């Protein structure tokens, strides 16, 4: 907004639904320090569901699974509010770490963060595929520190990523155990909606469908879903006042 601001801008921001009061204060102070006036905080799963176009204003149950970089957030929403919620501190970054650790353990290869990210986006899959490809990975030999090139089969990446994905599936299951029975019918019929960058991992919808037992589908444009939801909420503050915190 440039250097000189006559009126401090109103800012809407999403944050994990389980934000502590200390974290909330840190967030609002950070925003105030860069010039924010009124600050609206919307839980990230609510923002994701609005961005996904889910009918969360109705008295029905809506299951949203937002898979980002640092956290997987799972929520059941109804009447514009959070009915059941859990967050797991492991998502896209944890997948990169798992791939990095695997290459070191199995192939004595040390790779950088960007390489792990590239391998994940291009080749990793939550389930084995029929036509795996051979991947050339360049890095450093962990034993002698010299340049090293290793060839792996893309299906090898299923094993190291499985623990994180199982933990995400278990988080969804725990949220379902906290969900009131009258909301289950809608969830069984409509399944779960996946948003966030990590929902673009190949096969993750099929994996979660199998692991949880209800259909999972990925929203259109998962990376911008939360931002789109915030935009809609900012222009309809009254509709979402049950979920928005104003500071
Ligand atoms: N095609 C892809 N396949 C798999 N993962 C992807 C893909 N594209 C992006 N990602 C991952 O998505 C993550 C970023 O997603 P997103 O922008 O939703 O997270 P964030 O909102 O920044 O994080 P958080 O919600 O945890 O605060 C990164 O871990 C990135 O590696
Ligand atoms: Mg996010």
Protein architecture, described:
It is a single chain. The chain has 247 residues and is of the alpha/beta class. The chain has a domain at 92-155: Actin, Chain A, domain 4. The chain has 8 helices and 11 strands. The protein has helices spanning 21-33, 44-51, 92-107, 113-123, 158-177, 184-190, 204-212, 225-234; strands at residues 11-15, 39-43, 62-67, 72-78, 81-88, 109-110, 134-141, 147-153, 192-195, 216-218, 245-246. Strands 5-4-3-9-10 form a 5-stranded mixed beta sheet, sandwiched between helices. The protein starts with 10 loop residues before the first strand and ends with a strand. The model has no long low-confidence stretch (mean pLDDT 96). Bound molecules: adenosine-5'-triphosphate and magnesium ion (MG). The site of magnesium ion (MG) has 4 residues, from loops.
| Uncertain stretches of 5 or more adjacent residues | none
Radius of gyration: 20 Å
Q: What is the residue-averaged pLDDT? A: 96
| Helix content bin | 25-40%
Number of strands: 11
User: Please, how many helices?
Assistant: 8
Side by side, the strands of the main sheet go 5-4-3-9-10
CATH architecture of the domain at 92-155: Alpha-Beta Complex
CATH structural fold name of the domain at 92-155 = Actin, Chain A, domain 4
Task: Classify the beta-strand content into a percent band.
Answer: 15-25%
Give the CATH superfamily of the domain at 92-155: ATPase, substrate binding domain, subdomain 4
Alpha-beta content class: alpha/beta
Topology as a string of helices (H) and strands (E): EHEHEEEHEHEEHHEHEHE
C-alpha termini separation: 21 Å
């Amino acid at each position: 907004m440039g250097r000189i601001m006559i009126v401090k801008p109103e800012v809407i921001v999403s944050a994990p639904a389980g934000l502590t009061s200390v974290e909330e204060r840190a967030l609002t102070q950070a925003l105030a320090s860069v010039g924010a006036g009124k600050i609206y905080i919307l839980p990230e799963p609510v923002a994701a569901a609005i961005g996904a176009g889910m009918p969360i204003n109705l008295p029905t149950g809506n299951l949203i699974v937002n898979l980002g970089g640092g956290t997987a957030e799972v929520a059941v929403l109804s009447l514009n509010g959070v009915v059941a919620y859990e967050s797991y501190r492991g998502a896209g970054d944890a997948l990169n770490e798992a791939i990095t650790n695997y290459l070191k353990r199995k192939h004595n290869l040390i790779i950088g963060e960007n390489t792990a990210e590239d391998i994940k986006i291009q080749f990793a899959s939550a389930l084995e595929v029929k036509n795996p490809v051979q991947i050339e990975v360049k890095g450093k030999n962990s034993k002698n520190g010299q340049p090293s090139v290793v060839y792996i089969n893309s299906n090898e990446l299923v094993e190291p990523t499985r623990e994180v994905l199982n933990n995400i599936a278990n988080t969804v299951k725990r949220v379902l155990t906290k969900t009131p029975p009258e909301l289950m019918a809608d969830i069984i019929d409509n399944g779960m909606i996946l948003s966030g960058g990590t929902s673009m991992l190949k096969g993750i919808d099929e994996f979660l469908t199998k692991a949880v037992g209800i259909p999972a589908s990925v929203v259109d444009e998962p990376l911008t879903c939360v931002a789109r939801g915030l935009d809609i909420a900012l222009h309809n503050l009254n509709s979402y006042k049950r979920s928005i915190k104003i500071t």
